[in-house]
Amino acid sequence: MYRQAVVAGSLFAMLSVILGAFGAHALKAILTVDLLSSFETGVKYQMYHGLALLAIGIAYAYKPQKLLRIVSILFILGIILFSGSIYLLVALKSNGQIGLGGFGILTPIGGVLFIIGWLLMLISFLKKN
After folding, report:
1. pTM (2 d.p.)
2. How many CB atoms lie within 10 A of CB 103?
3. pLDDT, averaged across the chain
4. CA-CA distance, 83 to 62, in Å (whole number)?
5. Degrees (nearest 5) of the Cα angle 74, 76, 80?
6. Could you tell me how many helices (H) and strands (E) the chain has, helices first?
7. DSSP track, 77-111
8. Contacts of 77 (CB under 8 A, 6+ apart)
9. Which carries the bigger pLDDT value, residue 104 or residue 15?
10. What's the CA gap between 60 and 9, in Å, rounded?
11. Using an 8 Å Cβ cutoff, are 63 and 129 in contact?
12. Helices (H), the chain
């Protein structure tokens, strides 16, 4: 088992449940439909990749490859950049600010990290031991 991936995955999944509940109850009353939808997108991608980190951590016990460690780093950075920038953008827009300015590039960079991570995970699983 790759402990760091399992711990990170558990934390990110737990936080996505907390944030999802917060969005469904507290934010529903104060955010526009579009902003709430954006927030939910951040929560969903955080949960998906938190669960993927758990899978990587478990898979590592059967197939210990450096590539899986790299994938876990990409997913962690992707969550921080993708979901984190969405949460920040929603907070700023809900307070009347226009957006993240130049930091708006963080969301697509996080998305690219997710894509590269999934590709590398596929490659690692296709590799023979």
Report:
1. 0.93
2. 13
3. 94
4. 30
5. 115
6. 5, 0
7. HHIIIIIHHHHHHHHHHHTT----GGGGGHHHHHH
8. 110, 113
9. 15
10. 14
11. yes
12. 3-22, 33-62, 66-78, 84-94, 106-126
**Containing domain of residue 112, as a range?**
3-126
Residue in this structure with the two tokens 């307070």, named with its chain if needed: 95
Among 80, 97, 78, residue whose Cα is nearest residue 35: 97
Each residue's pLDDT tens digit, 114-129: 999 999 999 999 987 6
Please determine, for residue 98, whether its predicted confidence score (pLDDT) is greater than 80.
Answer: no
Q: How far is Cα 84 from Cα 77, in angstroms, rounded to an integer? A: 10
Number of folded domains in the chain?
Answer: 1
User: Which amino acid makes up residue 82?
Assistant: F
CB 43 within 8 A of CB 84: no
> How confident is residue 95, by pLDDT bands cut at 50, 70 and 90?
confident
| Per-residue model confidence (pLDDT) at position 88 | 92
pLDDT in tens, 15-28: 999 999 999 999 98
